[in-house]
Amino acid sequence: MASSPGGKIQGISLPAFLQMIQMEKSTCTLTVQGKRSTGRLFIRDGEVIDAQYADLAALEAAYEILCLPDPVIHMEKDCAHTQRQIRVPMMHLLMEGTRRFDERASRISDEEDADFFPQVSPEPPPCVPESFQGPGAPNSPQHHADTPGWETEDPDLSGLAAYEFSDEEFRQATQPDFTQQLSLDATEKTDPLPKKKSPKKTGRTRKPASPASAPATVKPSFSRKKAALFLVSILTLATLMTLGGLYAYRIYQHQDAYARLQEALGRLELPEQREAVLSRFLASFPQSRHAPDLQKTRDQLRDLILERDYQDLLTEESSLSQTPESFDKALRLYERFLVSHPQGDKANAVRTLQENRILAMAHYLASRGRETPAEAQWLEEVRNFTSRFPESPGIQALQESLLMRGNIHMEHIFTLPAQTSQARSQIIALASDFIQNFPGHPGRTRVGEYLDHLHREDRIAAFRAAASQMPDHADQLRFYERARREEKDPLVQPFLQERITELRQRVDEDRIWEQVLTDLRRPGLTDPARIALLDRYLMENPPERHRMEAQKERTRMAERMEAQEKQAREERARQTALALQRQQEEERARRAAARLRLENAQREMNQRLTQVHERFRNLGNGVMQDTRTQKIWMLVDAEAYTGSCLDFEGARNFVQQLELGGYRDWRLPTENELAVLFKNPPAYPLPYPDRWYWTSEIFSRGYQNEVRVVTARAENILQRQNRSPENCGHTLAIRP
Asked: I need a labelling partner for 697 at 20 to 30 A (CA). Which of 9, 103, 381, 622 fits?
């Protein structure tokens, strides 16, 4: 194959080049230039979707382009057409185009031969009797049309040119791994040997003789026997000659078909086409002396096709994930392979892959059930899987996952409070979903009973809400009596009867309380008398609601005499509350200022750490890690927390009491640790390089103690500095 820089391809047949494009699933545009005409093929994802040739339709244009002799191919990397006009798979398109090309080449060859040889009407061989010269005779055109290997149009391939594939057939046929085998047995069932005709028995009818002409004696009949023997001999000889001619013609037919087979094997490139041609020859000549070798070649081709399809299946199967979409693709992949290769070790291996994929999908769905995904989607996927694969070993894992999810839902339903109407509505919705989504759960009966109970509670709550709108107990009593007459649920009747009994008692109690109130409103009654009347009523053990009203009235009367003292107490309490409120507001303001100061410092450090992120990693919660030493430090120094600098003793106390980032084992760093932090580039970018920080190294110099300190300035050489413990410095804590 010669390829020019401009995309020009020569030296390879167009069907072979299209097969390579299909294997690579390429998208391109081919301009095919013949000796006298040019056509274009538009290919997307390895399939021909449209074609242009003269004014022909897309499919016929594709066939005409495939028939161009010695084409020159120009290839463009993109495909401008997106709408599919050709709904025939690539393999069928190539086979039909090859068939048309062969027919056209054979027709041209016959026309050239006709120019050199005169046309002679076909005559039967001299050894063939006239009885075999009819339409079914061995040399007749009809017999040649029925003879395998004769150049007649294949009905399977000719029908393929006009056949439009459906979407499902097109998806099954356009897989790069499997091609449909040709059904070549339709024209192979004609018996080349004509049936033997039984000879007709002939006889003469004798006229009755008249009495006058009757002979005196009867002649012997030996002449008839000789005639019969002669006739049988002639027929036997003709039959033997016919059988000999047929045998010779059969040998010629076998040799001609074998020569055509060799020519086709040398011309065809696709293994499926070569295997189909071999199968046709072996079906026509099963007793050929070449049959063992051809069967071996056919078996090798079948093994090659099987191994190629199996490797392609493994390659495509390895690229699929465990998602439901990939699962469906894998199942279609397995089914296509098993349709093409239903028997053998490879088929068993593919069935094993199919079973493993189904089992893995079951475990995948079960694991998703434990991870609490979207409930409705997961349940729908589980139901679909169970209906499609009821005998899969993974059903048990799915049932366990369903049981676990059902137990979680049931426990959630029974733990929710059901005091309010809104809460009951939520529980009712959850219980209804549980009964619908988990029909086989053992707790379904219990949830159903609880659902009925909630419905009754909802109805009772509705009765209570309607009665609460009536302020008078007498009206409530009449409402409940009417509801009891109309209620059909026997489990609600006890509640209504209980409410009726309670309301009747309350009506009597309301009557007594109304009488007491009437007595209290009598004119001329003093406050001590009113208090005595109320005390007498309270001693009679009244209902709680009236007791509270009576006590309230009595308290109101008693409080009249203590009004001034109560007012003074309230004023003192008010002043105390105001002072406490001011103190709390000051404390909140102080904490807000400290929190704002800490947030600003941490925000600034977060921005600075982005410049040295390759060394310092922000762990969040106010801490960071030096990736070189793997030590964990405070993100900002102690002044962001305290608002001021600290002496050495204050720094040690701050570090010992510090609880930051979930750690409590903070300490003061050593001089070397601070030097590594500030002096080794990239240094820790604190915003105040002139500050110095306490270390844990304290020593005595004369009569005074001194502490090693390290400045935050980025220096190449560490300059040791000491400070008195009473000095006010800064603190940066570290933890082991």
From this structure: 622
